[in-house]
Amino acid sequence: MNYAPFKKHINIDVLIYLVLLLLVILFRFLVLVRFGFKYTDSDQTIMWLGLKDYASGVFHEPRFYGQAYSSMIEALVAVPLYKLGLPANKCLPLINSLFALAPFVLISFFTLLKKSPKMALVITSIPLLLPVEYSLLTTIPRGFVAGIFVASLGCLSIFYPKSKWGFFLLSFTGVIGFSLNFNAVLLFLPCLIYLFLENVKNKTFYLYTILGFALGFGIHFLVNYFYVLHPFNDVHKIVLHFSFSNIWIGIKKIDPFLNTMSPVFWKTGFLVLFAFAIIGIFLFRKKEHSKAISVISIPVFVILTLGINKVHDGTLSIFYSYARMYLAIPVLLAVSLSFLKANNSKLFYIYLLLPFVYLTYQVSQLNSVIEESLRPSNDDKVAVATVDKFTSECNHLQDICNTYKIDLVIIVNHPYCDFYDYGCTATMPNFPKTIRPSYERRTWRFIEDENTVYKNILFVDIGRNASSNQGALEMLPNETGLFVLKNNTKRTIDLFNQLPVPYRQYK
C-alpha cells in the first residue's frame, strides 16, 4: 500500500479533514437537539415499541411491524443505549444519524488514506453542502437510511478492486441493504458495475460475488418466508409495478425527488444528475473507462427508478418525502468523487470557503426550515407531535387508566391512534395493553386478546356518541371520545362483534 501521498499532506489535510468532520458532527447534533429529539411522528412510535421489545429479548417478526418490507435494525442497534437509560426518542434518532453520516466518513477516510487527501476533504464536506431538509430527513428513524448504510460497507470494495473479499462483501451487503430498504439498490449497482468491468476475466470475481449473493439472498428469503407462513402479519402491503408513463411523470416533476439530495443547488435538484455526467465524461477523457461507465450509469438508474409506482408514493412533507427514495444519491456522489484526484495546488483550499458559508447559512435557517416542515397540510400521511405533547397525552391517558383500573385500551378512532397504540405502550412503564382493531400492526395482539376477558376497558373513539353505545359504555365526563366499559364478562372478540368495533382479519 502506497502511503506517500498520505504522509506528504498529513499535517494540513488531515487537520482540515478532522475540522470538517467535527463540523458535520456538531451540525448534526444541533439538528438532533432542535428536531430529532424534540419531534416525533406516528410511525416512529412503532420503532420505539420495537426498541422496547428488542431490549426485553422479544422478537415478534423480522421486519418493521406489520409489513413485509423495511426493517427496524435501528432499534436493534439502539438497544445498548436504551439499556443505559437513554429514552427511545433520543437513542433512535442518534443511531439513525450515525447510519446517515457513516458512509461519508468511511468513503472520505479511505479516499484520504489510499487516493487523494484533498478529494477526501470534498467528500467530507458533502453533508455541509446539502439542504437542511436532508439532515432532517436522515434524522427520522423510519428505516430510510439503514439499507444505504449497510450497502455502503460493501461499496468500500471500490478501493480494493481486485480483492476477493471485496467481491463477496459488495454482493452480500448489497442484497442485505436492498432487503432492509429498496433504495439501497441505487448505491449497490454502480459499484457492482465498476468491479465487474475491472474483473471481466477474473474467475475469482464471479465465484466470490455469487457466494455473497447466495448468502444475502438466503437471508432475504428466510426473512420474507416468515410472511409467507404468517400472511396476516403483512398488514401494510406493498405492490410494486413499473411503467414508462411513470418515468415521464417523474421527469416532469423531478425536483421534489432530488432537491433534498442536491449539494449547493438546493432548488434545482436535477443538476445533481448532470454532476454525475460531468464526472463520468472527465473519467472517460482520463481513459478510466470502468469508473466512467459506473458513474454515468447513476443518472440512468435514477431515471429508470422513476418508473416504479412506490417512488411516487410521497408528499412534500419531510415526514413522508418523495426524496426518501433517493437518499443514496449524496453517497453516490461521494463514491464518484473518490474516483478523482484533486490538484495539489494551494488554490484548492479556496474551495473550503464553500462548506463554511453553507454551514453558516444552514444554522441560520434551521429553525425556519423545521417550522416549515411541521406545518400541517392536506396530504399528510403520518401524525406529527412534539415529544412533550405526546408524553403529556400518554400521561393523561394513564391517569384515567389508573383511576378506572383499566386492563385494556381499545383505540377505534382518533387522530393519535398510533401514538396511543404503540407510543404510550413503548414509553409508559405500567400502561395497559392496547389494540387498534381496524389496523393493528401487531397481529399477535389479536391472538392474545381474542379469547381473553378484560374486566375494565377504555375505548378511544371520537366517532362514537352516548346514544350509539347501546348503554354498554360510560362516556367519561369532560373528555372527548373516551368511554369505559366496567365489569366486562365477554371475550374481546365478542365485544368487537357486539358493539360493533371494526377489526381486520388476523387469522
What does this structure look like?
The chain is mainly α. 57% of the residues lie in helices and 5% in strands. The strands form two sheets. The protein has a five-stranded mixed β-sheet, with helices on one face. The N and C termini lie far apart (59 Å). The mean pLDDT is 92.
Write the layout of secondary structure elements.
Elements: H1 4-8, H2 10-36, E1 39-41, H3 42-55, H4 73-83, H5 88-114, H6 117-129, H7 132-137, H8 146-155, H9 164-180, H10 185-198, H11 203-229, H12 244-252, H13 255-258, H14 271-285, H15 289-305, H16 328-338, H17 353-374, E2 384-386, H18 387-403, E3 408-413, H19 417-427, E4 433-435, H20 443-449, E5 457-461, E6 474-475, E7 482-485, H21 492-498
Parallel strand pairs: 3-4, 3-5
Antiparallel strand pairs: 1-2, 5-7, 6-7
